[in-house]
Design goal:
With 453 residues, this protein is an alpha/beta fold. Strand 12 and strand 13 form a beta hairpin. The protein contains 12 helices and 22 strands. The strands form 5 sheets. Strands 1, 2, 3, 4, 5, 6 and 17 form a 7-stranded mixed beta sheet that branches. Strands 8-15-9-10-11 form a 5-stranded parallel beta sheet. Strands 18-19-22-21-20 form a 5-stranded antiparallel beta sheet, with helices on both faces. It has 3 domains: 210 residues, 3-Layer(bba) Sandwich (FAD/NAD(P)-binding domain), CATH 3.50.50.60; 106 residues, FAD/NAD(P)-binding domain (3-Layer(bba) Sandwich), CATH 3.50.50.60; 113 residues, FAD/NAD-linked reductase, C-terminal dimerisation domain (Enolase-like, domain 1, 2-Layer Sandwich).
């Protein structure tokens, strides 16, 4: 059996892994990149998650009522597939063109400390690295329920290629993935019912935010049933019956949006002395070091926030240890923004009003419905006036400690707010800013004007 020794062995082609491989390879370090699937070059984000789902959300928003739902959806899936194919090919080329990087297709399992065996069909290859980086990500979790293996019961990956478009869809789970897909498929033309186990949508958000999101989904045609849990699925000739505590619901398809689990089963981590937590995520310290010397875990597989930009920052932390001072840590992260791509997108950073008050902080809170913001004409121009903009301000300093932006362009605006928090820029500076017109940023002039001066 052939054996390769390398400076750095990267297992999994996610954002952190590919960024480390390219940078270290360009610096002259020998790197071996192992990826189990040729459909995952570039990682989860560009192939089955962030990019393709947001492409589908965009195509759903473009559909007019008169457009054939099934035809439009099939065309949207084709557009999605063309995009991911181009990105996948480009990601492969970005590493293939670096001479110091060796690309290996196959499934890796540990056979010793910092050594794996890679299998591809009947072929076997041993690879050992002075440093090993695990970047295998996560996969959709499926609850252990009767009938869950039915082909009509999908996860967030398989539903993207459902054919034909289901005329009726039940979404199980009221988390961010469930909300995104519910709104998307309703706009494609499906009759969508969302089963949410909590008493209301977004229980961790402020009441006014949750109500605004619920109103937008209702206007899109999504029926939400709160306080219910699915208990099983029964396939029949034309669809599937969803059993839940309180009734039975028939649909042509089901989406299980019930979280994600680490993709680690095939790795045999225990052989290398790599510890995992009770959920199977790899345990790491503030510098992403595992319990095994010389082994790092980056991206979703380490149980941290499951965002591509967090994975990219993970690569910075590991790179700093390998080629620089080794001072970067996960605890350096401040005011990390998030966006859920509803229509319009819901973006958050810092503390919510509820969290601030629970901590006993003295705060000023300003909020305004997007439809009522006169200084923000862009939502009216593009025909999307759902939502609200809300800021939580420290009463003594005037500094922003949190914001929720549920509005058109919020995925961009939230980055500006996050930067203001990190840089200690007072809310008054955003209020008095000179912003382009017509833009969504202009909302800051009006919403923050309600703060006491």
């Amino acid at each position: 059996m052939k054996h390769i020794e390398t400076d750095v062995l990267v297992i999994g082609w996610g954002k952190a892994g590919k960024s480390l491989a390219r940078t270290l390879g360009s610096l002259g370090h020998s790197v071996v990149m192992v990826e189990a699937s040729d459909q995952m070059y570039g990682g989860t984000c560009i192939n089955v998650a962030c990019v393709p789902t947001k492409a589908l959300v965009h195509q759903a928003e473009l559909r007019r009522t008169a457009d054939s739902a099934a035809t439009w959806f099939r065309s949207a899936v084709h557009t999605r597939d063309s995009l991911t194919a181009k990105l996948r090919a480009r990601n492969h080329a970005m590493l293939a063109e670096v001479d110091a990087v060796t690309l290996v297709d196959g499934s890796a399992r540990f056979v010793g400390p910092r050594e794996v065996e890679v299998s591809a069909g009947e072929d076997r290859l041993r690879v050992s690295g002075r440093t090993v980086v695990i970047n295998t990500g996560t996969v959709p979790a499926r609850p252990d329920l009767p009938g869950v293996e039915s082909p009509r019961v999908h996860d967030s990956t398989t539903l993207q290629h459902v054919d034909p478009l289901p005329r009726s869809l039940v979404v199980v789970g009221g988390g961010f993935i469930g909300l995104e897909f519910a709104g998307m498929f309703a706009r494609f033309g499906s009759k969508v019912t969302l089963l949410n186990s909590a008493d209301r949508l977004l229980p961790r958000e402020d009441d006014d935010v949750a109500h605004a999101v619920a109103a937008a989904l209702a206007d899109a045609g999504v029926e939400v049933r709160n306080g219910v849990r699915a208990t099983g699925f029964l396939e029949h000739g034309s669809g599937v019956s969803v059993q839940y505590d309180g009734g039975l619901l028939d649909a042509e398809a089901v989406l299980l949006a019930t979280g994600r689990r680490p993709s680690t089963e095939a790795l045999e981590l225990a052989v290398a002395g790599i510890a995992v937590d009770e959920r199977g995520f790899i345990v790491v310290d503030e510098q992403l070091r595992t319990s095994a010397e010389g082994v790092f875990a980056v991206g979703d597989v380490n149980g941290g926030p499951q965002f591509t930009y967090i994975s990219y920052d993970d690569h910075r932390i590991v790179l700093d240890q390998l080629v620089a001072g080794g001072t970067r840590r996960t605890t350096d992260r401040v005011a990390v923004p998030t966006t859920t791509f509803l229509t319009p997108p819901l973006s958050r950073v810092g503390l919510s009003e509820t969290q601030a008050r629970e901590q006993g902080l003295d705060v000023h809170v300003v909020a305004k419905a997007v439809a009522d913001i006169a200084a923000m004409p862009r939502p009216k121009i593009v025909g999307e006036t759902h939502g609200l903009i809300k800021f939580v301000i420290d009463a003594s300093t005037g500094l922003i400690i949190g914001a929720t932006l549920f509005c058109i362009d919020s995925q961009e605006l939230i980055n500006l707010v996050a930067l203001a928090i990190r840089a200690g820029v007072p809310a008054a500076n955003l209020c008095d800013g000179i912003w382009t017109h017509p833009s969504s940023t202009e909302a800051f002039n009006e919403v923050l004007a309600a703060l006491p001066r």
